[in-house]
Design goal:
It is a single chain. This protein has 427 residues and is α+β, with helices and mostly antiparallel strands. It folds into three domains: 7-213, P-loop containing nucleotide triphosphate hydrolases (Rossmann fold); 226-311, Translation factors (Elongation Factor Tu (Ef-tu), domain 3), CATH 2.40.30; 317-425, Beta Barrel (Elongation Factor Tu (Ef-tu), domain 3). It is built from seven helices and 24 strands. The chain has helices spanning 20-30, 36-48, 55-68, 99-107, 124-135, 155-171, 207-213; strands spanning 7-14, 77-81, 86-91, 111-117, 140-146, 181-183, 226-228, 231-235, 239-245, 250-251, 256-260, 268-277, 280-281, 285-286, 290-296, 308-311, 317-328, 342-345, 348-361, 368-371, 381-388, 393-394, 405-410, 413-425. Strands 7, 8, 9, 11, 12, 13, 15 and 16 form an eight-stranded antiparallel beta sheet that branches. The protein has a six-stranded mixed beta sheet with strand order 2-3-1-4-5-6, with helices on both faces. A six-stranded antiparallel beta barrel has the order 17-21-19-18-23-24. A hairpin with a 2-residue loop joins strand 18 and strand 19. Helix 1 (20-30) packs across helix 3 (55-68) and helix 2 (36-48) packs across helix 3. The longest helix has 17 residues, at 155-171. The radius of gyration is 22 Å and the shape is globular. 47% of the residues are buried.
């Protein structure tokens, strides 16, 4: 199958109830991806559940349910063909306890829309979402100021939220001058796929137009094959199918791979039998593709979410310990040696212990401001040594930045984020 257009993974993030799912559902419907009779069914369903007006949100939710029933491989994602791209849309949940799913979503994204409801403005989670997007390497971010219909499409209200958000963007190192702010109503469809007739004052792009204004992601295809596993399915007639996004490199049927760490920690070897994307068999998949694959000699018990499929001739490493540069975003007290939170790295979640705080850095210059500090607190940037309490696959920033980033979570919140700069492999 020839690729007509480049693949672009776009994540929608934002506070719960700010209308993300509705905006996505409306985008799908107005782009002709949801037939009228299907929307009417969803409307009835929404009314039956006492959720009048939730029909567009149900679009994405229905995919999630279907996925849980295991009907097909890729239903958390929905594909939209624009003028320039094949866009895969990832709907990241906004609830606090869903942040870990959001981290996984963000780690797969080339670009992001931050959705902020005009009547609520900046929320505590808005900053956390921005930090996560930055740490996960999402460079391209556009902002949707949503639910404009609730404030009668008032330009002053839009500008107030835009000003508040600009301050926040600056704080995480994003230039607000170069950021697009879209005035939209997901529910009414204003500036989603069609230009609004209610806001003559708004001169910017619609959400659909903005998708094509993002620049095409560079594909790290020259790096060795790395595909973190997102889920493992058993599919009748095919067998075990790990699903995930190829972070780097290329994959072909017949290729020898090793899946690390695997259940034993020593890795599982196999050979790629088939590769499928959006229900089509591929003769080659490349970095950026979300695929399902079948591997000869690998069963469901051998592998799990968080394992990484690697090229057998050039695998990643399972690490004994590693050195990282981290930023403390949101810790209730202080972090000292011995602290053991959960590290979210690609799709893996592994408890890791801080074994040495080497130095604090001045975040503005990157120079050391203090050697061997006793503790770290919010706003600190530091170099630390970390020991995983389980098997963890990781790479150095300079070898493969796509496999070096992580977020640190504790008691339901993201406390820090960082990158691996050096590591010691397990013997």
């Amino acid at each position: 199958m020839a690729r007509i257009k480049p693949n672009m993974n776009v994540v929608f993030v934002g506070h719960v109830d700010h209308g993300k799912s509705t905006a996505i559902g409306r985008l799908m419907y107005d782009s002709g991806l949801i037939p009228e009779q299907e929307l009417n069914k969803l409307k009835e369903e929404a009314q039956k559940h006492g959720k009048v007006g939730f029909e567009f949100a149900f679009v994405m939710d229905r995919f999630k349910e279907e996925r849980e029933r295991g009907v097909t491989i890729d239903l958390s994602y929905k594909k939209l063909i624009t003028q320039k791209f094949e866009v895969t849309i990832i709907d990241a949940p906004g609830h606090k306890d869903f942040v870990k799913n959001m981290i996984t979503g963000a780690s797969q994204a080339d670009a992001a829309f931050l959705v902020v409801a005009v009547q609520h403005g900046v929320m505590p989670q808005t900053k956390e979402h921005l930090w996560l997007l930055r740490t996960m390497g999402v460079e391209q971010i556009a902002v949707i100021i949503n639910q404009m219909d609730t404030v009668k499409f008032d330009e002053a209200k839009f500008n107030k939220v835009k000003t508040d958000l600009s301050t926040l963007l600056k704080a995480v190192g994003i230039n607000p001058e170069k950021t697009t702010f879209i005035a939209a109503s997901g529910f009414k469809g204003d500036n989603v796929a069609k230009k609004s007739t209610n806001m003559a004052w708004y001169k910017g792009p619609t959400i659909l137009e903005q998708l094509d204004l993002f620049t095409e992601p560079q594909k790290p295809i020259e790096l060795p094959l790395r595909m973190p596993i997102q889920d493992v399915y058993e599919i009748t007639g095919i067998g075990t199918v790990p699903v995930g996004k190829i972070e780097t490199g290329k994959m072909k049927p017949g290729q020898k791979v090793i899946i690390l760490p695997g259940r034993t920690g020593k890795g599982v070897e196999g050979e790629v039998k088939t590769i499928e994307m959006h229900h089509e068999q591929l003769t080659e998949a490349i970095a950026g593709d979300n695929v399902g694959i079948n591997i000869r000699g690998v069963g469901k018990k051998d592998i799990a979410r968080g394992d990484v499929i690697c090229d057998a001739s050039n695998p990643a490493l399972v690490v004994e310990e590693f050195t990282a540069q981290i930023a403390i975003i949101n810790h209730p007290t202080v972090i000292a040696k011995g602290y053991t939170p959960v590290f979210h790295i690609h799709t893996a979640q592994v408890p890791c212990q801080f074994i040495e705080l080497q130095k604090k850095l001045d975040p503005k210059t990157g120079q050391a401001s203090q050697e061997n500090p006793d503790f770290l607190k919010n706003g600190d940037v530091a170099i630390v040594r970390i020991k995983p309490m389980g098997n963890l696959v990781l790479e150095r920033q300079k070898d493969n930045p796509h496999m070096a980033r992580f977020a640190i979570r504790d008691a339901g919140a993201t406390v820090a984020a960082g990158v691996c700069i050096d590591l010691v492999a397990k013997k």
